[in-house]
Amino acid sequence: MQSQDVAPRPAPSVSDPVVDVEQAEAALVEHYPRLVRLAYLVLPPSLGRNRRVVTAHALTQRALPRGRASAPMIPAQSTGRDGDPGYAFVRLQVLRTALEAGLPLRRTAFPKRSQLPPLLPQVWGLRLFPRSGGADELALDQRLSALSGPARAAYVLRGLEKLPDGDVRGILAAAGCADVDEALDEAGDVPAAHYPLLDSPEFDPCSLQARPTDLMRRRQHTKAALAAAAALAVCGALLGLPGDGWAPDGAAAPVYAQNPAAEAALDPAKLTRVAPTAWESASRTDFSVWPARGDLTGDKALLRRALAVWARPGESVQVSATPGTPSGGPAGPPQLLYAGTVDSARVVILYDGLRIARYAEPKDGTKGAALDFARVDGAGRAGASAVVLGRADGNVRYLTAPWVTKAAERDLLKPSAGAMSLDLSHGITAPLASPATQTGACTSWNVLQLTDGTGTRLLTDLGELVPAVLTDGRPGSTEDTSGARSLRTWAPYACSLASVRSAGVRTVNVWAYATQPLPDATGSADWVCTRAETWRGGGTRVLAQFRTPGGIYGAVAAKSENSAACGPKDPNVLAGVLWKSEAGSWYLLAAGSRGTSAVTATGGITGSGQGNLLAVRAKQGAQAELKGTLSDGRVISGLR
CA 326, CA 311: separation in Å to the nearest integer? Predict the structure, then answer.
């Protein structure tokens, strides 16, 4: 833990506003998630993620005054959070105690309450930690851990609270920092470009994941505390059981003790390695025929660490998994796909037939290691085309399949702009811009274009280990998105891919299922449905989108989750939207896919039409229920 200087707090001025308990409590409840995030970021990372989470909540909950208290009149506090002095007070208290918690313990002084493990809140038997972010968040956390407590506080006040340096000075001085100028200078070493990352789930102590504590150690402590009672219970049980008796775990051996399968799974020498040319003659074309690549495939110590962390990740390891992906250890020796240096990290990628596991650690140590999982069962040639090696500075780098011969980058929003060639060395692409961390207005969506012996396909980074494959066409007869027509179809709807980030998506298909003449004779609108299929099968997401002539982007008219609509099992889809003409008239426009013989609207808007299109006069804000009749007589509902 780094040392830091915290000076005695200044005495309140007679002009300071007075904050009572009720006012402070109202501010704390309203802004609780932000205050806890502030405390979590300021607390020293050396505490470990579980204790940082619990301590951040404890410090925030103890920030209330005992009665009426004065809040120092710092400009930032008098104007921040809508000028609420209650928020100013609790923020200052949280900041002060978080800085105190980072002070080293001294033998000559009694420890402060904030320096000790919190009594409350406590969760027995579980470790809690925020959801893991990407490589950018990991890099920022490492840089913040190298700062002193006051410097971390200065960086967080600048980036999270959006305060100017003059206000930051006042708050740090009120919190008792001895050398404010040094803290500001030190905080300036971390680029301001990383400020938006402070709002990411990586640093959110209110949105947590849970893992068990060290089960073996916990069991040993329990046995030691209850040794006498356990001995009596065991003796009594043995007297009453026939034969040799049995244990609660049956024939299972203790973890990794005398268990050949578990021991083999941790042995780097037993990792499966595939020959570089195995894919050329194999009947399957998936991850199982990828050779081992990278400059560290012979580093047994690195491989051993990767396997051990996979089997039992420690408290400091950041673990993430796509939805529906188990994160337990491998059942046997996995297959090695990659071990090498990527930017500023050592990376190992393993495959066990069901999952891809990516282990990453800094080049200068193992602190801050990360472990990510993604399901890839049933992957075909397209789905096994690439894996994410690493992300840094808004870019992503891929390891491609051995059958990939060419890589390029293109902007999906600009179909006529062409593709920009990417260097491909030993299957590793040059970095390309990733849309996974894109914030604000969607002005571009860069995708990876890969070429092999069977054709060209596009893949997009959705923030996971395996990029999603983009396709185009009617469900059941889709094709790779590589031709000019497919690119033009995708362009207005590329930004909708942001809605399926981090959802375990395998493929996303776009299908232009109808074209509808507008009632005011200003042209024809396009109806498109996009369907995101997941690796786990469930959680599919369907969007019906509507675009008027000249529109740059499509508008979402309806959406559904876990629906068969617009998919191989049921390619039919029906959706409607309220549309305002240039003359100011409102209409209900609805369209069904090919094979729809009639469309009917009921409820707030009534009307019907033959064929797959419907246009009915409507009022602003009116709602309707849509029904479609297919040519075989089956009735379908509007997508919702």
Answer: 12
Please name the residues in contact with 615: beta carbons below 8 A apart, sequence gap of 6 or more: 516, 519, 587, 588, 589, 590, 609
**Between residues 10 and 531, which one has the greater pLDDT?**
531
9's CB contacts (< 8 A; 6+ apart) are 96, 174, 175, 176
3-state SS, one letter per residue, for 287-312: HHHCCCECCCCCCHHHHHHHHHHHHC
Secondary structure of 532-591 in HEC code, one letter for each residue: EEECCCCCCEEEEEEECCCCCCCEEEEEEECCCECCCCECCCEEEEEEECCCCCEEEEEE
Q: Is 375 helix (H, G, I), strand (E, B) or coil?
A: strand
Q: Which two tokens stand for residue 639?
A: 């997508």
Alpha helices by DSSP H, 330-382: none
563-566 long-range contacts, Cβ below 8 Å, gap at least 24?
A: 563/639, 565/529, 565/636, 565/639, 566/475, 566/511, 566/513, 566/529, 566/530, 566/531, 566/542, 566/593, 566/639
Mean pLDDT, rounded, of the chain: 84
CB 546 within 8 A of CB 577: yes
Tell me if 321 sits within 8 A of 420, measured CB to CB. no
Mean pLDDT of all residues in 539-555:
93
Name the CA radius of gyration of the chain, rounded: 29
User: What's the pLDDT tens digit per position in 291-341?
Assistant: 999 999 999 999 999 998 998 888 888 999 999 999 888 888 999 999 999
The residues pairing with 508 across neighbouring beta strands, listed in sequence order, are: 470, 532
Kindly state the helix (H) or strand (E) to which residue 417 belongs, with its residue range. Answer: none
Peptide bond between residue 121 and the one before it cis (omega within 30 degrees of 0): yes
Give the whole-angstrom CA distance, residue 150 versus residue 154.
6
Backbone angles phi and psi of 56, in degrees to 5: -60, -40
70 pLDDT higher than 90:
no
Looking at residue 245, its pLDDT comes to: 34
| Alpha carbon distance 149, 152 (integer Å) | 5
* Contacts of residue 340, Cβ cutoff 8 Å, sequence gap at least 6: 293, 294, 295, 296, 297, 346, 347
pTM: 0.62
pLDDT at 83 over 80: no
Q: How far apart are the first and last CA of the chain?
A: 53
Do the beta carbons of residue 200 and residue 29 sit within 8 Å? no
Average pLDDT over residues 434-452: 88
Q: How far apart are CA 365 and CA 159, in angstroms?
A: 28
Written as six digits, the tokens of 511 are 């299908």
Provide the 10 A C-beta neighbour count for residue 636: 20
Residues with Cβ < 8 Å from 498, sequence gap 6 or more?
435, 438, 442
In SS3 terms, 1-14 reads as CCCCCECCCCCCCC
Residues 6+ positions from 342 with CB-CB distance below 8 Å: 360, 389, 390, 397
At residue 233 the predicted structure's pLDDT band, cuts being 50, 70 and 90, is: very low
Pick from 146, 51, 135: which is nearest to 101 by CA? 51
Residue 333 one-letter amino acid: P
